[in-house]
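Quick one, tokens below:
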């Protein structure tokens, strides 16, 4: 089947991007894209609706924010030699996915850090571990999806969200003057935040800086250089 080279972006590029996301063979990909007039975003979203599962790889098309990813790919000039790196693009939508964590001696400080930005946080998807999430709901009247407390696996649950590209910002007030039975879990969580390029606030000043940023209500794209890191091993 021949491709029309007069369209912009070229159909070869759209096809390559579609296959990078879906792993579908060439003929089936072309047939599917023709159904949607070579609109990459529409084709990907319809494929998700038809399959009803997370078969669209690590791009997390299931997440509301990441549905902008197909449009981002289509509008970007991507050479045919680097399609395999598309899965390392994460689009942070206007509604960010924010995790809120605080050690026992830092919970009240966290609430006071968040209080001035209560109305801003209401526009985003919030996650929290243990009593921190419950405290945010009680004190600030915000809806929080709560995980287990840190020592019971909450840090690991957040780590899984990061690995799945389902978290954009981590706000974590750590008590540096206390010993923690789950120190290894905390270290692993912070390591994953670095590996996957998560925006991190680990002090009151950094949390204030992040939440007051104009980018809190803007789309933002970040690149995860996993392939480069793994090649060095």
């Amino acid at each position: 089947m021949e491709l029309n080279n007069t369209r912009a972006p070229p159909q070869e590029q759209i096809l390559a991007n579609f296959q990078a996301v879906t792993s579908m063979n060439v003929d089936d990909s072309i047939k599917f894209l023709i159904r949607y007039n070579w609109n990459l975003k529409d084709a990907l979203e319809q494929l998700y609706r038809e399959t009803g599962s997370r078969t669209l790889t690590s791009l997390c098309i299931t997440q509301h924010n990441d549905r902008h990813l197909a449009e981002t790919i289509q509008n970007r000039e991507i050479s045919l030699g680097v399609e395999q790196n598309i899965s390392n693009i994460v689009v942070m939508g206007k509604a960010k996915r924010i995790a809120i964590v605080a050690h026992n001696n830092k919970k009240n400080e966290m609430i006071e850090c968040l209080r001035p930005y209560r109305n801003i946080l209401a526009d985003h998807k919030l996650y929290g571990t243990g009593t921190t999430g419950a405290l945010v709901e009680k004190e600030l009247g915000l809806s929080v999806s709560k995980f287990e407390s840190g020592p019971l696996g909450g840090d690991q649950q957040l780590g899984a969200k990061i690995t799945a590209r389902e978290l954009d910002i981590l706000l974590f007030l750590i008590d540096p003057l206390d010993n923690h039975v789950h120190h290894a879990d905390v270290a692993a969580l912070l390591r994953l935040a670095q590996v996957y390029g998560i925006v991190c606030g680990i002090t009151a000043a950094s949390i204030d800086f992040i939440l007051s940023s104009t980018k809190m209500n803007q789309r933002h794209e970040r690149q995860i250089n996993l392939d480069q890191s793994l090649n060095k091993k």
